[in-house]
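Standup notes
- DV: blocked on the single-chain target, sequence here:
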Amino acid sequence: MSVEDVDEQAQDKPKASKALGFQPSLKGRALRLLSQREHSRQELEQKLKPYEEIPGELAQALDFLQAKDFINDQRVVESVVNRRASKMGAARIQQELRSKGLDDHVMAETLNGLRATETERARDVWRKKFGQPPQDAKERAQQMRYLLSRGFASDTVRRIISQPTEHSD
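- DV (later): unblocked, structure below
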């Protein structure tokens, strides 16, 4: 094989890899996911595990991204709260955060803040959906189930349904 043949083969490799469906690195895939929204480390592991070719490669890539602060649990908490707080109660948000593999100590302060505003947020959700007190027991049960399914505390739901026009608690 001559030098020219080797040069030709080297030039063909990038084209060949694109033709075969070039796959980005695990780090590249993780960065693409992180550019769309905040992800916890556990979420990234679940999504990227099928693409790991060498054992330990994924953990190494995620360690690098975490060291560079691309993966940050506090930002994940803030992102979820910003998206969900206007529609969901603290229990539902806590459930979502746990499903993302976040520790209780990371979300404790934020959840305490959510619980402090839960009555006001529940009243807003109730007002948007129903707007008027229940007329009978069936409507009352429907309104209560709706708010409970959104993760609002049962005592808060009872307070909202029994006194829907009260503005502060």
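- Follow-up: The CA atoms of residues 97 and 111 lie 10 Å apart.
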